[in-house]
Design brief:
Elements lengths: L1 E7 L7 H12 L4 E7 L15 E7 L13 E2 L1 H6 L4 E6 L5 E6 L2 H10 L8 E5 L3 H13 L2 E6 L7 E3 L5 H6 L2 E4 L25 E4 L8 H8 L3 E3 L2 H15 L4
Parallel strand pairs: 1-2, 1-3, 4-6, 7-8, 7-10, 8-9, 10-11, 11-12
Antiparallel strand pairs: 3-5, 5-6
Helix pairs in contact: 3-4, 3-7
Length: about 250
Amino acid sequence: MRTFGLIGYPLEHSFSARYFAKKFEQLGITDAQYLNFPIENIELFPALFEKGFNICGLNVTIPYKEAVIQYLHELSDTAKAIGAVNTIKISTDTQGNRLLKGYNTDEYGFRLSLLEYLKPYHTKALILGTGGAAKAVEYVLKITGISYLYVSRNPKHNGQIGYNALSKALLDEYLLIINTTPVGMYPHVDEAPPIPYEFITDRHLLYDLIYNPECTQFLSQGAKRGATIVNGNKMLVLQAEKAWEIWNSIE
């Protein structure tokens, strides 16, 4: 039985297992399964391969998209440029040694799902959060020609500001706001990133990488003020399909 799965912690929010179970059923695939592997520490990652599963591919979610890289043998060019991995392909070399190659399909999913909503005036973006998902967002903004600022609870570098620095003047200028944090994700559905929502207008585009719940407080607050809102569901589907393509490709 070919095994695919998801590593991260916690995983109660994840739809991946359900998504791939439905995909396998639709395609008549009976020799594959998709499992959640919640690991409390990335140091437990190597032990997954000692549990007797024939693991052929893995997805990676919060908080291990960067930390997992130390266990991989190779990175795709995109994953290397981003510095974060959300997809791992497992194969063997001619001597039977296990080879793990990291990819980033978040970039693909985010890019394709964002482009259809962009307007000519969406030239500057605020990225909420600085984790692995934020790096994929940054990569897409760079190649799309959109300038950006990171917003962090603990800004540490140039190009990062704190939430308390968000003013009306800044939000009038930065009309694309992307939440890459888990704030507002199930089960904490009443939470929202602490931005001044009163300055959101109908020219703003709010994109939340969260897909559970479908409409987070972040998006709900934006919708109340006429903003265009997008959740992470389409990105999830696109990145999952790209991962499936990678796992089944012959290099």
